């Protein structure tokens, strides 16, 4: 019941676009320490947070000299009030520019931060914000979850480097997966414990985890997405298991074996392998090749076949779990089994 209530609230966030999940400074610091070399002499743009209360703006302004930044720019949807949840109903939006410490105290004082008015509402898709985007080298922020597809598409269109927060389910989006497959986007180091705590007043936190925090909502499966090179991306996953047909059954409608846990990928199998989307956190393009994703529509592009005629009678039951033709499925002890979404990969470094 708790899970259903939580899922309902998160779904409402997508529907109502009340997805203002404000990121903690500690999470920002924990992730961005791995990217410091990328920021020297760069213009950083934070375009989805109120710059006066944004922890992204706080991090970059207080570390401006340490990172060697050239300029910091921040915009947000119209919001003139200091209240973090001001409902964005002010008449005019602003943007802030910071070019570094001027009085020698190594603190970004208000008089050192240029506050400028925007003609429009500050939406990241507006002409004004796109002009600011064009001037930026790297974009760092937590964009609205409901607009993640559109947000990433804009970054790709304007050929921008970025480090942004999103949910791991975005890996399966038809607009996002091809970017991952083609090595134009990958996962960063991630949130502690695979979950993020965000400031958000719209939803009650139903999480039962021991690390829940008062006044914040705990969201599992959030991650950092980037196209900046990081060491993690080139670390080999250590494999130790060997392939056997009994332990690794093949899918009924696609020539690939199923692996339920990333660490159990067989080291000696040279065919196609279906792995959970959590594999992406360990993905190394030097070690593995991504072929496709085994879900409806996207899966059909790889040649995943629909249910076999003799298995049609099982469809109603598995459809209750959201499975449709085009999803991968197996027969286990005479019963149709539909695993969660699978990324289809091939091991480049097979060990015999």
Automatic annotation (TrEMBL):
GO biological process, one term: methylation
Pfam (any one): EcoRI_methylase
Matches recorded under PROSITE patterns: N6_MTASE
Keywords: Methyltransferase, Transferase
Gene Ontology molecular functions: methyltransferase activity; nucleic acid binding
InterPro entries: DNA_methylase_N6_adenine_CS, EcoRI-like_methylase
Highest taxon, organism lineage: Bacteria
Signal sequence, start to end: none
Record-given protein name: Adenine-specific methylase
Species per Swiss-Prot/TrEMBL record: Prolixibacter denitrificans
Phylogenetic lineage: Bacteria, Pseudomonadati, Bacteroidota, Bacteroidia, Marinilabiliales
């Amino acid at each position: 019941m708790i899970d259903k209530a939580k899922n309902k609230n998160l779904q409402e966030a997508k529907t109502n676009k009340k997805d203002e999940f404000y990121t903690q400074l500690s999470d920002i610091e924990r992730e961005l320490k791995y990217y410091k070399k990328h920021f020297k002499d760069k213009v950083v743009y934070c375009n989805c947070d109120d710059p006066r209360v944004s922890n992204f703006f706080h991090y970059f302004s207080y570390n401006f000299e340490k990172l060697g930044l050239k300029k910091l720019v921040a915009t947000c949807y119209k919001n003139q009030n200091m209240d973090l949840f001001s409902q964005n109903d002010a008449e005019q939006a602003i943007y802030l520019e910071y070019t570094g410490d001027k009085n020698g105290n190594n603190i970004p004082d208000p008089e050192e931060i240029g506050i400028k008015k925007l003609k429009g509402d500050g939406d990241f898709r507006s002409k004004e914000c796109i002009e600011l985007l064009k001037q930026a080298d790297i974009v760092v922020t937590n964009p609205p979850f409901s607009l993640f597809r559109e947000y990433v598409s804009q970054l790709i269109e304007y050929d921008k480097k970025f480090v942004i927060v999103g949910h791991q389910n975005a890996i399966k989006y038809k607009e996002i997966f091809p970017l991952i497959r083609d090595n134009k986007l990958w996962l960063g180091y991630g949130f502690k414990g695979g979950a993020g705590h965000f400031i958000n007043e719209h939803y009650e936190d139903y999480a039962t985890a021991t690390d829940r925090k008062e006044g914040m909502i705990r969201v599992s499966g959030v991650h950092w997405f980037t196209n900046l090179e990081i060491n993690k991306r080139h670390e080999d996953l250590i494999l130790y298991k060997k392939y056997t047909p009994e332990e690794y059954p093949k899918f009924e409608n696609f020539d690939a074996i199923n692996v339920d846990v990333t660490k159990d990928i067989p080291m000696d199998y040279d065919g196609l392998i279906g792995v959970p989307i959590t594999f992406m956190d360990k993905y190394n393009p030097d070690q593995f090749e991504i072929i496709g994703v085994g879900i409806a529509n996207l899966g059909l592009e790889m040649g995943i076949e629909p249910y076999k005629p003799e298995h049609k009678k099982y469809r109603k039951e598995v459809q209750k779990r959201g499975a449709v033709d085009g999803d991968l499925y197996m027969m286990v002890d005479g019963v149709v089994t539909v695993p969660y979404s699978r990324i289809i990969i091939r091991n480049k470094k097979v060990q015999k």
